[in-house]
Give the backbone structure.
Amino acid sequence: MENKAGMEKYLNQGIKDVILEFPEIGDILNEYNIGCVTCNVGSCLLKDIVKIHALPPEQEDELLSRIAEIIYPGIALVKPKIEKRHQYQPKGIKYSPPVRKLVDEHILIKRWLALIPRITEKLDIQENWGRELIINGIDFMRFYADKFHHAKEEDILFKYFNENLDIIKSMYLDHEAGRSHVRAVAQALENKDKEAVVKHLIEYKNLLKEHIKKEDEILYPWMDRGFSIKQIGELFDKFNKAEEQMNKDILEKLKRFITKTEEQQMKRKRIKQEVLK
Amino acid sequence: MMEGCPGSRMQDLRNKEEISEDESGKRKSQLGQWPIQLHLVSPVAPYYEKADVLLTADCVAYALADYHKDYLKGRSIAIACPKLDEGQEDYLEKIRSWLEDSNINTLTVMIMQVPCCMGLVGLARQALEISKRKVPIKSIVISLKGDILSEEWI
């Protein structure tokens, strides 16, 4: 993909240099009302110029294709793309950096929740693999979801708010209910009670799924709207410090557990599909 | 019709109608330091230590009427022009030094809507990438008429 890398180079180059090398590009920009030719500074990057003029998507595609055709005439190109990180019309929820950390942690937790119905379907806790799977799952729920993620909320984030507010109280209740399901799973495993293991895992999944949805869509955006810039910086710093105190090897091990379990489930699904053919 | 680069295109923004705003009384400057130009400041000056820093493109304070009251108050600043200033590699190093040496709390980059101004956000982003210490960085884009077009974490 040499020409793709080449396009990246030109997208990241000052417009004056681009037009000097390819004067036709100046004419093309003029057609789209982008008047860089007359600028005697010309330090704006080609990608920023295209982005800031906010052309309709089809026009932007057309413009980029025409520029690519000038730079690499007659070569079939991967269409150059401008990264849309700075769109002036924000869509969807935009989180502050510290809150973004929590939302990103939710993603790994949701991957575990998505695995629960699949692993409980054929679970055998009499076998070593089945017991090990549940023990690792308990570790993930205790250390990653609770000691790493929920602790940051309870010890840091929620302290910025009146903890008697119903919405905060309900988050605490969810955390407690989650802990109680994890304890119940551990107890059921010890009792070799497969039905109870499955029941509490499924209840944990249903609880956390709703809990995360409430946080991502309602609680976090509401909190973010109320934070001052100073508080955002403090919160980010406190989260970083809390993360530094966690054992990185354990966190990595838990992340690997999720990825490995997903791979095993995918493999099982493929084998099942093969058998059904 | 060709209208030229938005960064240097002539535009007459004078009010055609009289707007009755109460402009009486004097406002206090919120500037808490000197110097302010990014080439002149030391990134380890005491007023940057753990501060919420405002990196403002030169033109912003002229366009944004409430710059002092709404943005400068309580913050340390530096100003720069990503289009005309030379020695931008020094700028990059100073921003990195804010993050790593002065342990700034946050960085807010305020720019005009013209494309050349994006370079200042680009510098902040680059500094964040090379810095060992990360802090929240926000970009605020101001229109030529002094409206806030966007506020976004980067």
Chain A has two domains: 2-71, 97-276. Chain A is about 75% helix and 0% strand. Chain A touches chain B through 34 residues (CB under 8 Å). Residues 97-276 of chain A form a domain with the Four Helix Bundle (Hemerythrin (Met), subunit A) fold (CATH 1.20.120).
